[in-house]
Design a protein that fits this description.
The complex is a heterotrimer of chains A (310), B (292) and C (451). By secondary structure, chain A is of the alpha/beta class. Chain A is built from 12 helices and 10 strands. Helix content of chain A is 37%, strand content 21%. Helix content of chain B is 73%, strand content 4%. Chain B has 11 helices and 4 strands; from the N terminus they run H-H-H-H-E-E-E-H-H-H-H-E-H-H-H. Chain B starts with a helix and ends in a 14-residue tail after the last helix. Classes of the chains: A alpha/beta (310), B mainly alpha (292), C mainly alpha (451). Chain B binds chain C through residues 30, 34, 36, 81-82, 85-86, 89, 91-93, 95-97, 99-104, 107-108, 110-112, 114-115, 220, 224, 227-228, 231, 262-263, 265-266, 268-270, 272-273, 276-277, 280, 292, and chain C through 58, 64, 143-144, 147-151, 153-155, 157-159, 161-162, 165-166, 168-170, 234, 279-280, 283, 286-287, 290, 294, 403-406, 408-409, 411-413, 415-416, 419-420, 423.
Chain lengths: 310, 292, 451
């Protein structure tokens, strides 16, 4: 039984009157490669942002490696505006309406086991750095490298969160061993992504494809358990996409990571994914294996389209 | 009790109106350019000096319009020299340019006037003492709030009803799209500075009728306070700037009245900190979210 | 390999530092050294430290703060209050009965340990000055650091003003002397090694050590984190860097050193008064940082000395009404002036050419083909040259424009020119020791394969 790495439960994200993500439920298990696909504007990056703590969801819960990391319910202004489902679920007022007493008790027990805050109003909205520290790292749809820094430093900076030395020892160079170890690790990552030769270049002087690889290396530097990739193949030609497909496979096999990706390149998605979730207008319209998704009529209508006769 | 407070209240409303007139300049420029025009307070001071020199050699009927015209020209010039070339530069650079411009204006005034404080000419009728509800004060104090409200009303009408007003509103919503829609952005911006400088000139006439000495640095504090008023009311909102100006003017005057004069300036800044901590967008401001 | 290089660099740096201190010490004690030079050196060193502290916050972490003067004020007063000698406290605090702390750190330590005690006391008080400033930075940082750049600037400016008002508050007079001058405390002239004067060595030593610490910090993992926040804070947060904590850290460290520099300034002036620490002081520091290059420590240091040198010394002549002696002097002046104008025009034309914009491209784009800036510049130059010729011919001997205040006008114009045309400043974002390295990107694009 594969252990659960990520569970998103009833996540809804509403901006003013616009529901960007509507009651999303998904789970990812250790060692899987899962993809999130859907038309532009479907809410995929917003979902990523909710999972990684950039936004606190209007409602819902995110669980990482068995622990609840994000939790919120509609409050204040949002209480009136909320258009989504289950507004009471993460509040103290939540009571399980069940058919009979047995089921109700069993449900309560599971709730209590899984999340001791199940019957409170407690809100968990950590900043992204906290979540990254727990073991979740991400890349961005629009590359966000640190422009004034070299390739090497871009990755080295991502190791900062794992330091054990304080300000004083770092400033006065009392942390030489740790620094050396971190630098060695950066060299290793550069090897893995094939950027060793460019390590002293300015990050922005790299061609686009290599910048994307750098961003992935940077995310890997934070020593994550789960890697979220937002459109890693965007702007890549078929050759590069193939390399990337193979690379993601290696991330899973060699590095033992779990991968969750947003992508539009269907070859990459169908090739590499164990499972796929399909989002449209913020809501989940399908989930399953690549084969199942390819034959799902709703998905075809909303997104994939029909292949032209060769 | 009321007659004790009344002179301070009146003074507060008066100076509040003057702050309001200056604050409008700040808020309009910030609304469109996202720039704090540090030099605005100095333009206010220059208006004061121009009046001093003009009134010494010309009749008031000439020097008053002359002051206004020259102040407006200065305002537009500052924009052309210090802000337009940096339109595409990072925000910090533009702000530094504004500070540098303010520095230049202050030093130039110091050089040209020899650093001695100048006496502001007495404007007849405005400076006359009048009797209001038992206390005597100068007519300026009474006129200022009315004049302020009149000017602001005219301005709001201009913004809501005229083409250029609509262009200004569009530019403050989305600068780039306004340009793409064919709005001549340079003209809009110049016009904004024209209006702002005009109001600053009028404000200076009212202000210096009350506090009659003009020095090169006299405009720095009112300028800063007017900016706080603009932030307090919601940067980009004209009614907000006006209300902010009056509130600051009144509170400041009351504090002075209660004896804590050293803190009258500090109060304004404390108010700024509070509003930035509690509601950064000000009373009437809008929220903006950044897309990740 | 890397280690050896680092060690070598460190040794060279140490030698240079010692050499500088020895040189400065020599200047302190040799006869016939103009006191203006020493003034410039001392003040320059102090301003260098403030500029570096501001650069740490603005240039390296990307937090635009205008509160430097407030922290300098806190540091200056902390130091001064702690070191006024006991016997002078009555006269210094004359407007406040029983004013003063009743003790003086430097005096107490000096009495028990002699010169070394005084030195120790000063170091202690400097550190305390920094800590007080840092503490207030922590207080202020809590609400203020979340704000966006413009608002942060105004909020910090506001806080500096509030601090100034509080220090001048009459009720605090017994400690701060209210709005009156505070003087008599230990200053640079109190330092001597036997008969060897150390008046200029001390500020260099203190400022130098502090700047060294900042350099170490910038090149450490925390310094890199600050730069990441400056470049893209969303990405920094996503890579595990806690924004609030690091911003606060940068703010506190910057204020700590600003406080120390305030104390050094007090020592330099031998007196402090709250009213001097206005926003104008912060603007001067900001301009120094811009001139030196935002993001360059060596730039800030160089620019400080340039700034202080020019404002105290170099441009002084602009303030004096000058009457030339005779016709010959006039001709000399006219020639020099003419050459200067020609040089500026040549420089301007050359830099325009380097920018490489062709007239034709601009016309095709529909943009005005005439560069109005250049036209204006040429017009001004032409007028200046015409005036030059007229001046030689005319019977006048007195140079126009030169009188009190002109220096600052010229200064401000130069600053505006720098801000508008040389935004990078002198050093850009490079350090002095980076200048030798060739540009990497060009090499790489040629070497590494095509993508």
């Amino acid at each position: 039984m594969s252990e659960n790495v990520l569970r998103v439960e009833n996540a809804t994200m509403q901006f003013g009157g616009v529901v960007a993500v509507d009651n999303l439920n998904l789970e990812i298990n250790k060692g899987e490669i899962v993809s999130l696909i859907g038309p532009n504007g479907a809410g995929k990056t917003t979902a990523f942002n909710v999972i990684t703590g950039v936004y606190a969801p209007s409602n819902g819960r995110v669980e990482f490696c068995g622990e609840t990391i994000v939790r919120n319910h509609p409050q204040g202004k949002m209480k009136k505006l909320y258009k989504g489902q289950n507004p009471e679920m993460y509040t103290a007022a939540f009571h399980v309406q069940a058919e009979n007493a047995e089921t109700k008790d069993a449900l309560e027990e599971t709730e209590k086991e899984r999340d001791s805050a199940a019957f409170t109003d407690k809100v968990l909205a950590p900043t992204p750095d906290v979540i990254t520290k727990l073991g979740m790292a991400r890349t961005f749809q629009n590359i966000r490298l640190w422009k004034s820094q070299t390739v090497f430093d871009n990755i080295l900076i991502a190791k900062h969160l794992r330091r054990t030395s304080g300000l004083f020892s770092a400033t006065f160079r009392l942390n030489r061993r740790e620094e050396a170890a971190q630098r060695a690790d950066v060299e290793r990552l550069l090897e893995i992504v094939g950027l060793s030769e460019a390590k002293d270049e300015l990050a922005t002087s790299l061609p686009y494809g290599k910048q994307r690889r750098l961003e992935i290396a940077r995310a890997l530097a934070t020593e994550p358990k789960l890697l979220l990739l937002d459109e890693p193949a965007a702007g890549m030609n078929p050759q590069e996409t193939n390399d990337l497909t193979e690379f993601i496979g290696r991330i899973r096999s060699d590095l033992g990571l779990t991968v969750f990706l947003i992508e539009h390149h269907m070859d990459l998605v169908m090739d590499i994914s164990d499972r796929i979730y399909v989002l449209d207008f913020g809501g989940l319209i399908a989930k399953g294996t690549p084969a199942e998704i390819q034959n799902n009529q709703r998905v075809i209508d909303a997104y994939l389209g029909v292949a032209e006769d060769a | 009790m009321l007659d004790k407070i009344l002179p301070y209240l009146l003074a507060g409303v008066s100076v509040g109106g003057q702050y309001a007139l200056i604050a409008i300049g700040y808020t309009m420029v910030y609304g469109i350019l996202r720039l704090i025009n540090f030099a605005h307070g100095d333009i206010f001071t220059v208006a004061g000096f121009v009046m001093v020199y003009a009134a010494a050699t010309m009749p008031l009927s000439v020097s008053i319009p002359l002051t206004i015209v020259l102040t407006v020209i200065l305002g537009v010039l500052v924009e052309k020299v210090a802000y337009r070339p940096l339109r595409s530069a990072p925000r910090m650079s533009v702000m530094i340019s504004a500070i540098g411009m303010s520095y230049l204006l202050q030093n130039s005034m110091w050089y040209l006037t020899g650093g001695l404080a100048k006496q502001y000419p007495v404007l007849p009728w405005i400076s006359d003492r009048v009797n209001v509800a038992g206390t005597t004060t100068s007519r300026v104090t009474i006129i200022t709030p009315f004049l302020t409200i009149l000017l602001v009303a005219a301005l709001v009408l201009l913004i809501k009803r005229t083409k250029i007003g609509m262009a200004m509103r569009a530019a403050s919503r989305d600068f780039e799209t306004a340009q793409l829609m064919g709005i001549k952005i340079n003209n809009v911006i110049s016009f904004t500075f024209v209006v702002g400088s005009f109001l600053a000139a009028v404000g200076s006439m009212l202000y210096f009728s009350n506090y009659a000495t003009v020095t090169p640095t006299v405009g720095a504090m009112p300028g800063l306070k007017a900016f706080v008023a603009a932030v307090f009311g919601g940067i980009g909102s004209i009614p907000g700037a006006v209300i902010g100006g009056f509130i600051i003017g009144i509170c400041e005057s009351l504090i002075k009245g209660s004896g804590l004069t050293t803190f009258s300036d500090a109060f304004t800044f404390a108010l700024l900190i509070v509003i930035l901590a509690v509601k950064p967008t000000g009373l009437f401001g809008e929220n903006l979210t950044e897309k990740v | 390999m890397i280690k050896k290089n680092d060690h070598k660099k460190a040794w060279i740096a140490l030698m240079i530092a010692v050499a500088v201190l020895v040189l400065v010490g020599a200047l302190d004690n040799l006869p016939h050294v103009p006191s203006m030079l020493l003034t410039v050196l001392q003040k320059g060193a102090i301003y260098a430290l403030v500029a570096v502290s501001m650069n740490l916050l603005n240039g390296f972490t990307g937090l635009f703060s205008l509160g430097q003067a407030g922290f300098m004020l806190l540091g200056a007063y902390t130091y001064a209050v702690l070191t006024v000698p006991v016997e002078r406290q009555a006269s210094v605090y004359q407007r406040y009965e029983g004013g003063g702390l009743g003790f003086s750190v430097t005096q107490s330590l000096g009495n028990s340990m002699g010169q070394f005690g005084v030195f120790l006391g000063v170091v202690l008080c400097l550190i305390l000055a920094g800590c007080v400033a840092g503490f207030f930075a922590w207080l202020i940082g809590l609400p203020v650091l979340k704000l966006k750049s413009d608002y942060l600037a105004i909020a910090t400016l506001g806080f500096a003003e509030i601090i100034r008002a509080v220090v001048m508050y009459e009720e605090l007079g017994p400690v701060t002397n209210g709005s009156n001058l505070l003087y008599g405390f230990t200053n640079f002239t109190d330092f001597h090694l036997g008969s060897l004067k150390l008046t200029t060595v001390m500020p260099f030593l203190f400022a130098g050590l502090c700047i060294l610490v900042v350099v170490l910090l910038i090149n450490s993992t925390y310094g890199r984190a600050f730069k990441a926040i400056r470049d893209d804070e969303v990405a920094a947060e996503a890579m595990g860097i806690n924004l609030a904590k690091h911003k606060r850290m940068s703010f506190m460290i910057s204020s700590f050193f600003a406080g120390i520099s305030g104390a050094l300034l007090a020592m330099f002036q031998a007196s402090v008064q709250a009213s001097a620490f206005k926003a104008a002081m912060t603007y001067e520091i900001l301009l120094i940082v811009v001139i030196g290059g935002i993001g360059s420590i060596t730039g800030s240091v160089i620019a400080s000395f340039l700034f202080v040198g020019c404002s105290e010394w170099g441009l002084r002549f602009l303030d004096n009404e000058t009457t030339l002696k005779n016709f010959d002097a006039k001709v000399k002046f006219a020639v020099i002036f003419g050459i200067l104008i020609a040089a500026v025009v040549a420089f301007g034309l050359l830099s325009m050419k380097r920018k490489g914009e062709k007239l034709i491209t601009r016309a095709a784009q529909g943009r005005p083909t005439v560069r109005w800036g250049a036209v204006l510049g040429l017009a001004v130059a032409a007028i200046a040259l015409l005036w030059d010729v007229w001046f030689v011919i005319s019977p006048r001997l007195k140079l126009p424009l030169l009188r009190s205040g002109f220096r600052m006008v010229v200064f401000s114009v130069v600053i505006m020119i720098m801000v508008l045309f040389f935004r990078e400043g002198i050093m850009g974002d490079k350090e002095l020791w980076d200048l030798g390295k060739k540009k990497r990107s060009a090499k790489a694009k040629a070497g590494v394969g095509n993508e």
